[in-house]
């Protein structure tokens, strides 16, 4: 089934879709320009704008549902950016509205949670301004109807991410992490930018409808190039191999940021880009293959990193990488995988945000301690956090009937049909997920107390637990709601297309059973090692493999060796060349002229008779010359 | 024939005089040599049908300009610059090379400019030399002539402006000068009385004779040290003067003073220490140069204060 | 015959030039300049005779006038310099240098 035509739209909630972007943007502007005067109500305004944005998104969604499925792609023209070349408009279709709902809903909950989490931070107002800025940019990214506006949003979320990772910039680690995230993202953005240039050179337009409808007319080579360049952009933003290194360091930011930006929304922008540009990837098997390979490699890499991290947030970040790897894998497969990719994205947005916020709640209770080896036995002290976290945990490992079970299983089944190797690797990843997530839960909530003497854990206030509860409800039921009866696939079909034959859900397929068995084995291993046995407070040295995983698979070392050090050498070489070569030339010239002048000026002795002598000799010479010439 | 004799005599004289002008050590001799050259040239003008110019040459150059030179020479006096020792390296060598080259080139150049026999001025000066010149000056060249008058007036004014010195304080009267002398006496013990004239009590009325005090001894103040030194070198220093000088030196050594230098005496400015320009050979000239430079030092010290 | 006058004029001019270059007393230098001017005048007078018109004598006359003015001003300058520097040496006036 092919995607539907885009219909120009005006009126109603969809016509006012720009409000979704404008409201948080206004909030950010007021909070940033208003300065300390807005300190008192800043957090409330931020929450209000996020919620208002959600309301517009929800109304648009309702209006969209009221339309016939074939008419659900609505374009809203805003203005001519470059007349005849680039119009700026919004595209409200099932794909973008799904994202809008996720962003605004989870975003609103995290805004609310942040009121409590950031209560004691003197810069809370600025934090909310950045959050609002992020929401606006992210909505622009998903609502844009062309690649330029998408790129503006893309850069906007990058900026917000940078600002929020480095929000506690007084910590050198945070400042460095922010810089690292920004620089690594630049690499990806550069790829995306060149991809956009190539798109324009090929299709002479940047609007989605113009590009995607004509994608099959371009040559396969061009499409491969565009696809790979877009993939580079997606890798940068979604922390896929080989541009994954920034995500783990990005955990230096406040935990709500990690939940919103580095788990639920921004890092999924790459998946959105691949799904949105689906027709381009469909035209090139090479690019599709590369996408799936990147996805599988990342889901395994993230899972392996997750097994070794003692920092609760970094373990969750590894898990995020891994889960996005699943989504990218699904997105690389084509229309059969799109729905699962997006569905997993949405459910992941819920349960990962749930777990991140749960982790934040734990940290809040433990004096911002992040080392899981110093947790333990928190289930009784923090019952609400524990239960919600447990739900998120069960959802992510694919416990039957919870969200992750449906969406991840869908991805694995689709991958298995597409390519058995990819499928089995995905199954293996699911098994590792079972191990590391269980390890995380056992180390945090079970076992013995290994707290620091100063820690007095307590349950977080309602403003933090209520969002947890809401998110965990989503983590329970959303998967079943979306997947059963192919509800979500049918809904998305007008936007991204759908396979001719709708997949049917088999609760007891072979793959599903093997997956469940592997997950159970992983969880059991984790129980043996971290649940029943005593967890050492200081991490044991571990084998080579442990070190390998702890060092993020030597990603940073690789980057340093391949790019940073040669870059530094190159800079030093340039500096040397500038100092010795360019400056040497200029200075040498100046010194030469200066030295010559210094010697020449000695001719000016000040003695009139010397000057007279030179005049006299000159006159004699002239007379001689005159005689010679005159006699010729 | 007559012209040839005149020319050859005057040419030789003028060239020798010109060389004398350049190479004589004393500026006064140079001036006199210049006068010889100018007079020779005046005669050569006259020989060449230019009686008016000959007259003007004598009146203006030998008369006015030479006098002016001599006046200024007297004003400036003997100077270290009269020394013929060259101070700029290579200057003399290149000057002579240039001079020889110029002479040869000019001789070759304008010496060959003449073609054929001279036409003579008989045709051009039928009304006489002066009226013909006057006609030219007041008809064709009248504007240039008027301009030269402006030039001369400007030059006269310029000379006045340059030579004029504005007095910044009233001229000291004799009373002021006397008071100054006694102030100096009170401060340094300098004798306020005029220096004794040479030979006041002497048997001879000559400048080299020291004055005698009433008791018949020699007054040290009156001893002219230049003359004393000259006489010492010649071995004709009168014994009484030598004794006085020795006593003075001994006394000054006892007082811890150094021997008074020529410069010190020059600064004292007594009539007996006036340098004798016309006296003695080379060394004298150098000494005189030192006197002048010492004066210049003193002046610059005053300026510094 | 006129050639002899011209050669004499050239000789006197060159001698004057050498004098300007080797003498340090400003007044003597000035005299040497006068010598050079006189040598020029001799050449003018000779050319007047050679060419049979009075223009040469006329220009010699003007040269004399200008030389007279020049002497007045030059000597005044020398006196002024001597008054301030107590020296008539052209080498002493050498502050304007490197």
UniProtKB/TrEMBL annotation, chain C:
Q: What is its EC number?
A: 7.1.1.-
The record's catalysed reaction(s) read:
a quinone + NADH + 5 H(+)(in) = a quinol + NAD(+) + 4 H(+)(out)
| A molecular-function term among this protein's GO annotations | NADH dehydrogenase (quinone) (non-electrogenic) activity
Q: Does the keyword Transport apply?
A: yes
Q: What is its main location?
A: membrane
Q: Where in the cell is it found?
A: Cell membrane; Membrane
Pfam families from the UniProt entry? Oxidored_q2
Identify the keywords attached in UniProt to this record, alphabetized.
Cell membrane, Membrane, NAD, Oxidoreductase, Quinone, Translocase, Transmembrane, Transmembrane helix, Transport
In the UniProt record, which is one GO cellular component term? plasma membrane
GO biological process terms held by the UniProt record:
ATP synthesis coupled electron transport
Q: How does it sit in the membrane?
A: Multi-pass membrane protein
Sequence intervals crossing the membrane: 6-22, 27-47, 59-82
- Does the keyword Membrane feature in the UniProt annotation? yes
Q: Which NCBIfam families does this one have?
A: PRK05715.1-2, PRK05715.1-3, PRK05715.1-5
Regarding protein family, the annotation reads: Belongs to the complex I subunit 4L family.
Quaternary assembly: NDH-1 is composed of 14 different subunits. Subunits NuoA, H, J, K, L, M, N constitute the membrane sector of the complex.
Q: What does this protein do?
A: NDH-1 shuttles electrons from NADH, via FMN and iron-sulfur (Fe-S) centers, to quinones in the respiratory chain. The immediate electron acceptor for the enzyme in this species is believed to be a menaquinone. Couples the redox reaction to proton translocation (for every two electrons transferred, four hydrogen ions are translocated across the cytoplasmic membrane), and thus conserves the redox energy in a proton gradient.
Please report the name of this protein according to its UniProt entry: NADH-quinone oxidoreductase subunit K
Q: What organism does the record attribute this protein to? A: Microbispora triticiradicis
Q: Coding gene?
A: nuoK
């Amino acid at each position: 089934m092919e995607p539907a035509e885009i219909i120009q739209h005006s009126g109603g909630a969809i016509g006012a879709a720009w409000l979704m972007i404008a409201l948080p943007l206004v909030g950010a502007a007021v909070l940033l320009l208003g300065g300390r005067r807005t300190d008192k109500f800043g957090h409330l305004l931020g929450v209000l704008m996020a919620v208002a944005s959600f309301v517009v998104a929800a109304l648009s969604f309702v209006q969209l549902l009221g339309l016939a499925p074939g008419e659900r792609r609505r374009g809203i023209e805003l203005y001519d950016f470059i007349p005849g070349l680039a119009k700026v408009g919004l595209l409200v279709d099932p794909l973008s509205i799904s994202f809008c709902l996720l962003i605004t809903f989870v975003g609103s909950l995290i805004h609310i949670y942040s009121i409590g989490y950031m209560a004691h931070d003197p810069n809370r107002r600025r934090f909310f301004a950045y959050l609002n800025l992020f929401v606006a940019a992210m909505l622009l990214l998903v609502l844009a109807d062309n690649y330029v506006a998408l790129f503006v949003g893309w850069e906007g979320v990058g900026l917000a991410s940078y600002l929020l990772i480095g929000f506690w910039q007084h910590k050198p680690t945070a400042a460095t992490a922010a810089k690292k995230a920004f620089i690594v993202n630049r690499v990806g953005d550069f790829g995306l930018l060149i991809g956009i240039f190539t798109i324009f050179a090929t299709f002479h337009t940047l609007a989605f409808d113009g590009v995607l409808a004509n994608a099959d007319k371009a040559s396969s080579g061009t499409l491969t190039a565009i696809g790979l360049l877009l993939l580079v952009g997606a890798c940068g933003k979604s922390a896929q191999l080989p541009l994954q290194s920034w995500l783990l360091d990005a955990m230096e930011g406040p935990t709500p940021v990690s939940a919103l930006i580095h788990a639920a929304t921004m890092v999924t922008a790459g998946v959105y880009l691949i799904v949105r540009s689906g027709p381009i990837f469909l035209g090139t098997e090479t690019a599709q293959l590369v996408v799936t390979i990147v996805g599988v490699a990342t889901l395994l890499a993230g899972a392996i990193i997750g097994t070794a991290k003692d920092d609760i947030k970094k373990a969750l970040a590894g898990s995020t990488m891994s889960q996005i790897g699943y989504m990218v894998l699904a997105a690389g497969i084509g229309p059969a995988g799109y729905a699962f990719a997006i569905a997993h994205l949405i459910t992941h947005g819920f349960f990962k945000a749930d777990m991140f916020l749960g982790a934040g709640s734990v940290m809040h209770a433990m004096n911002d301690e992040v080392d899981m080896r110093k947790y333990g036995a928190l289930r009784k002290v923090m019952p609400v956090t524990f239960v919600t976290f447990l739900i998120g945990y069960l959802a992510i490992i694919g416990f039957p009937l919870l969200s992750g079970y449906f969406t991840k299983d869908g991805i694995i089944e689709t991958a298995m049909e597409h390519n058995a190797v990819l499928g089995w690797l995905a199954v293996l990843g699911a098994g590792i997920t079972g191990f590391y997530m269980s390890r995380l839960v056992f180390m945090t909530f079970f076992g013995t107390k290994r707290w620091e003497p100063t820690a007095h854990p307590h349950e977080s206030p309602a403003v933090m637990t209520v969002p947890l509860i809401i998110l965990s409800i989503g983590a329970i039921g959303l998967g079943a709601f979306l997947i059963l009866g192919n509800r979500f696939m049918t809904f998305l079909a007008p936007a991204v297309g759908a396979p001719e034959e709708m997949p049917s859900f088999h609760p007891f397929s072979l793959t599903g059973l093997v997956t469940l068995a592997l997950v159970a084995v992983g969880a059991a291993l984790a129980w043996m090692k971290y649940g029943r046995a005593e967890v050492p407070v200081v991490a044991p040295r571990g084998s080579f493999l442990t070190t390998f995983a702890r060092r993020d698979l030597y990603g940073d070392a690789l980057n340093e060796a391949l790019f940073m050090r040669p870059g530094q050498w190159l800079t030093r070489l340039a500096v040397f060349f500038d100092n010795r070569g360019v400056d040497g030339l200029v200075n040498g010239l100046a010194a030469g002229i200066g030295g010559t002048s210094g010697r020449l000026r000695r001719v000016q002795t000040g003695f009139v008779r010397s000057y007279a002598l030179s005049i006299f000799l000159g006159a004699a010479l002239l007379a001689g010359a005159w005689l010679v010439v005159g006699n010729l | 024939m007559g012209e040839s004799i005149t020319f050859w005599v005057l040419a030789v004289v003028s060239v020798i005089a010109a060389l004398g002008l350049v190479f004589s050590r004393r500026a006064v001799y140079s001036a006199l040599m210049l006068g010889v050259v100018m007079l020779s040239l005046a005669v050569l003008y006259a020989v060449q049908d230019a009686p008016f110019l000959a007259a003007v040459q004598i009146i203006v150059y030998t008369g006015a300009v030479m006098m002016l030179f001599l006046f200024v020479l007297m004003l400036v006096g003997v100077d270290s610059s009269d020394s013929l020792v060259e101070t700029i390296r290579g200057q003399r060598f290149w000057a002579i090379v240039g001079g020889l080259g110029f002479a040869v080139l000019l001789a070759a150049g304008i010496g060959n400019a003449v073609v054929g026999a001279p036409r003579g001025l008989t045709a051009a000066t039928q009304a006489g030399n002066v009226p013909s010149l006057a006609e030219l000056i007041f008809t064709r060249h009248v504007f240039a002539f008027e301009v030269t008058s402006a030039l001369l007036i400007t030059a006269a004014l310029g000379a006045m402006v340059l030579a004029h010195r504005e007095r910044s304080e009233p001229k000291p009267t004799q009373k002021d000068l006397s008071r100054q002398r006694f102030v100096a006496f009170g401060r340094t013990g300098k004798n306020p009385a005029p220096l004794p004239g040479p030979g006041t009590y002497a048997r001879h009325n000559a400048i080299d004779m020291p004055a005698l005090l009433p008791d018949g001894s020699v007054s040290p103040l009156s001893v002219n040290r230049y003359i004393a030194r000259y006489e010492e070198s010649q071995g004709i220093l009168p014994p009484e003067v030598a004794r006085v000088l020795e006593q003075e030196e001994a006394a000054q050594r006892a007082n811890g003073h150094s021997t008074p230098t020529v410069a010190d005496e020059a600064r004292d400015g007594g009539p007996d220490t006036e340098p004798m320009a016309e006296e003695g050979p080379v060394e004298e000239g150098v000494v005189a140069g030192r006197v002048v430079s010492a004066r210049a030092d003193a002046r610059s010290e005053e300026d510094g204060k | 015959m006129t050639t002899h006058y011209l050669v004499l004029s050239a000789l006197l001019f060159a001698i004057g030039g050498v004098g300007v270059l080797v003498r340090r007393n400003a007044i003597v230098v000035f005299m040497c300049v006068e010598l050079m001017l006189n040598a020029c005048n001799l050449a003018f007078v000779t050319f007047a005779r050679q060419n049979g018109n009075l223009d040469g004598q006329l220009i010699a006359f003007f040269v004399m006038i200008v030389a007279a003015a020049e002497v007045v001003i030059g000597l005044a300058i020398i006196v002024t310099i001597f008054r301030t520097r107590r020296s008539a040496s052209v080498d002493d006036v050498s502050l304007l240098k490197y």
